[in-house]
């Protein structure tokens, strides 16, 4: 079970709220339902592929990074570990723990102390198209 805080009081939430008020509320999205794209379109040098084509290409290999473009719909977002506290150093993504006595955050990787953590959004989701569904 998750929880939600209305008007959270941290900098990234304020930045997101300001962006939405200035620009985000004006954005419109095109529905992709019923699209009949065959995978031949190219954008930024990436070929549009179906979920089945990507699964076949990867063939269970998870140790290499492959860039591809898929047009589909998000069918499920997994909320476990949606946001985690991270080192405030922009060059690191190590997790931090809060020192109770000093109320500081200590990076488990670089051992530096910070007054506040950097909040990192990290989530997994399923995407599906007319051929299949896969987790990303």
UniProtKB/TrEMBL annotation:
Residues 68-134 form the Replication factor A C-terminal domain. InterPro entries: NA-bd_OB-fold (IPR012340), Rep_factor-A_C (IPR013955). It comes from the Eukaryota. This is Replication factor A protein 1. It comes from Coemansia aciculifera. The gene is RFA1_4.
